[in-house]
Design a protein that fits this description.
2 copies of one chain form a homodimer. By secondary structure, chain A is α/β, with parallel strands linked by helices. In chain A, about 40% of the residues lie in helices and about 15% in strands. Chain A contains 14 helices and 14 strands. The interface between A and B is large, with 84 and 84 residues.
């Protein structure tokens, strides 16, 4: 037996009806009730090797938490350096919003530029371990890019379906990796319809959000890392831009597993869902006190990652919000764009519009008094702004290096930059 | 005294005339001869705390090597999680090119998406420590984005000058961070002319490549990391896309320091410069046996980071290539685009065109026999492909999710994707 840790995966369990299934064959949703399957582990065994002491010398990557992750052979897995993202203190942002301590979990530093890398590394890696040759999914963009990258790394085919108006950078990335890219007239759930038809016809492995059990395991590592980065403490609040909500589900599961392993106590962060005013199914259901969220009609927002009108795991997300005494809020597109701008200018983090939504929510919740000044609050920056440059006005002045009065030319250019309207 | 390690910076030394200068005040090039100044350390003192054992529990970031870096107060420095990039084994690429072991140092995972983060974190951090309020530089794009980000994080102003045809993503990033962006009719050395005029007139701190001593120190960490990641061994060869060449200069200095500290022996990797056929000043000088490279006329290539017609450190780059028995090669734009495509499709790494040049060079040098099959070779992927989506043709098929025969629609879309010409 190797002295390297290995996965303590034991079985799958339905999050709704509790039915159990073996973990050593391909799985989608619960064959009994159609709801979300979760991976289960021998946590007692895991806790014997996954200790704060042993972790201190492990690399900061998904392999850090091998015991409670599903990959059976980490050395053969299609990893690309995902995970281990920084948890930045952002003192200027904290001061601007009236917090003592604000933290940003910077997921832009993952491969393919977003948090989607974590989930898809696991899902694609596990798909290969279980014999898949082609993976497929519907996506607002980031998940497609991650799927395409991990499929290339794993030597699998990839088919991704995205809304027609997906930002060009995400399409370019998928095409660069050699994925088959299909654009769909509609939203992400329309793309899901296309992928399910294709999966049935062509045998693709569908790695849609929470329609297979392993993406949530990758996302779980965000919760594991935050707790370890805070010295085995949970923060007071986590603000998370929520589309399909795999991150909320994954982190909530992470905290439960860490408690069972004796690594944290019963305290939990307030889990705070942020959605766009133009697409707020979870926030609406939370406000109405419901456990399920009907499809949001006419969904629209400039933040594609949270333009998700229906989430299969609505009940799991709403349970986490409720049990943690968190909340679910909305922000306007203007507010989220302002959040994006503020984070870049004050802290040097050029993040996605979804991240801007989390920044805007931090400000609103502090102003409303839901969060106290000394609530240690983690804002999730879920991805890089580089996929969203269409949201940045670009019109810098141009000067001639051979201008006889360069200093005057520079001065003129600077004045032009400062004027509110440029032509 | 804190038990945290601290910088053992002692003074600056001219790389050409050997004159020494204090390190506690702002510095540019050598006041005596105009050549490049390098930072010097008390390496004996550094070696007492920077040991393989102590490093094993330090975070993988620039702070890992505090002793031999210039930042005096790492806790106050404007860090964003730079450094600690993966050194991926790329077995499919190795097999395709005929190597036993090929490795890719994946610098796309740095803040702002490129290796420039390392140097600018140091230069901007050090500028602030020495009292600067505004930093400025000419850039092909990536260095400008990094400067803008670190200046925002440090609370400094930033002015960046870039060629008129710089990719939009880099401009957007700089503008998002609140930098003043000036476009220049010309190449990067024309931009340098603008910045030097502005620095003289307005007191900006010029952080141009190797015109201040600290960017090279940040780039040095690429060499430190590779050696540590290989278990305190140097690789057999390092293939590096070379514009200003700070990375070559920095890594070469890193190896010398590690040897003086007793952490490695006298062996050195072959340092291999890659340039574009359309802009090859260093490769031409190397071929001619010269130590200085005249300005390359009519420079052109699709890879902006290596469209650098003149390098102030030409003699340092050529010394490293010569002393290491490396070489300097060129690749065509077609070859570097093919390298970019091959890396993405075989290994799931969507990298910059400069990285594609390094990939293409690995193939050429193996084919030519300059590198043997068992030469353990590191290819530098200097940045993300996300800043270069203009190089990727984007024209995926669009389908209607309400098509009565979705499977037929998908089949049609897939056929369209495979056809070489789409309209």
């Amino acid at each position: 037996m190797s002295d390297l840790p290995h996965s303590q995966l034991t079985h799958l369990e339905c999050s709704n009806c509790g039915a159990e299934y073996p973990a050593d064959q391909p799985a989608t949703t619960c064959p009994g009730c159609g709801k979300v399957l979760l991976a289960r582990y021998d946590l007692a065994a895991a806790g014997r090797t996954m200790t704060p002491q042993s972790l201190a010398t492990r690399p900061w990557s998904l392999q850090r938490y091998t015991e409670i992750l599903p990959i059976q052979d980490p050395h053969a897995a299609p990893f690309l350096g995902e995970g281990g993202s920084p948890l930045h203190a952002v003192p200027r942002l904290a001061e601007a919003f009236g917090f003592t301590t604000l933290l940003v979990k910077d997921e832009a530093l993952n491969p393919t530029g977003s948090f989607k890398a974590r989930g898809l590394a696991m899902a694609v890696g596990r798909a290969r371990e279980l014999g898949s040759t082609t993976v497929a999914l519907p996506s607002a963009g980031n998940a497609a890019a991650a799927t395409a990258a991990y499929a290339a790394r794993a030597g699998l085919g990839a088919v991704v379906a995205m809304p027609e108006d997906t930002p060009a950078a995400m399409l370019a990335e998928c095409l660069a990796y050699g994925a088959e890219v299909i654009l769909v007239k509609g939203l992400i759930d329309d793309c899901g319809k296309v992928i399910r038809a294709g999966a049935a016809a062509f045998g693709w492995t569908d790695v849609s959000t929470l329609r297979e059990p392993y993406r949530a395991e990758g996302k779980k590592t965000m919760g594991l890392e935050i707790v370890e980065q805070l010295g085995w403490q949970v923060p007071d609040a986590i603000i998370y831009p929520t589309g399909g909500g795999t991150g909320i589900v994954g982190m909530w599961k992470a905290f439960a597993e860490l408690e069972e392993m004796g690594l944290i106590g019963p305290a939990r962060p307030k889990m705070i869902v942020v959605q766009a005013e133009g697409c707020a199914p979870i926030a609406n259901a939370y406000a109405a006190g419901e456990r399920h969220a009907p499809r949001f009609q006419d969904a629209h927002t400039v933040a594609p990652g949270i333009r998700v009108p229906a989430a299969i795991a609505d009940y799991l997300i709403l349970d986490a919000v409720g049990e943690s005494r968190g909340t679910a809020v909305t922000v306007t597109d203007e507010e989220l764009l302002d959040g994006m701008r503020t984070l870049a200018r004050l802290e040097g983090l050029f993040a996605s519009p979804e991240s801007g939504a989390a920044v805007a929510a931090a400000r609103k919740l502090r102003e409303a008094g839901f969060l106290a000044p000394d609530d240690r609050t983690v804002i999730f920056s879920t991805g890089s702004g580089l996929m969203h440059i269409d949201l940045i006005p670009i019109n810098p002045p141009v000067i001639d290096p051979n201008d006889p009065d360069l200093v005057a030319a520079i001065t003129g250019a600077r004045a032009q930059m400062r004027s509110p309207v440029r032509d």
